[in-house]
Amino acid sequence: xKKTVWIIAVLLMPxxxxxxxxxxYPNDEIDVDWSDKAAMQRGAALFVNxxxxxxxxxxxxxxxxxxxxxxxxxxxxxxxxxTTDKNGDQTKVGELMKINMNKEYAETAFGTAxxxxxxxxxxxxxHWLYNYLRGFYVDKSRPLGVNNSVFPNVGMPHVLVxxxxxxxxxxxxHEDAEGNEKEVIVGFKKLSEGxxxxxxxxxxxxxxxxxLDYVGEPIxxxxxxxGVGVLIFLFIFLILAVLLKKEYWKDVH
Length: 253
Prior knowledge:
Blueprint: H1 2-20, H2 37-51, E1 57-61, H3 62-69, H4 73-80, E2 96-97, H5 103-110, H6 120-124, H7 126-132, E3 136-138, E4 146-148, H8 161-164, E5 167-175, E6 181-190, H9 198-216, H10 220-249
Antiparallel strand pairs: 1-2, 3-4, 5-6
Helix pairs in contact: 2-9
């Protein structure tokens, strides 16, 4: 009995850890609509324009993305492929979505190489990503002049600042469970406007997160449909198995 309780506790630890990690701001929910391919297309455009200077998607090919999201090879070449091969020619649509920045230069420039983001939505989750990209604020004590309320002291610059604008945190003092007083970010105050309103920026981040969620598991929708088919097959097979069992054992019973 004790062994069973211990196993259950171990299995629940990741879930409990995630629940306890939700005390950041902002902490808004997001539901990714996989049927909204237009949103994922907009997210792909945001990624290649703002993120792909430093972050690659090494497990995704341009033409696979185009096929899944309804983007032709011509549009990919014209609007979404900005990298070149070793000869200086535009990267081909069948190539992986890698970047030209090498690891050694990235480590020299940033202190550590920016990670590949192919699986970021699977490892962090869309909820975390959505709030992280909306959590940057001005912090002059940081090397890049910004900090993040979801990922404190992160080394990433606010690459979407031109869209969102600058903001500073609204901080209040609260007591934790042990009675210790600490400062908590409860909101933001705008210092300058970006090219988008707050609602437009939130939608843009939602599109970007939708795209990254797709990249993390491109076959998610197909997997779900196959799973439903398998369950239906097993249910029909169960009925046939029960009828067959009755037929074989009718003389015994």
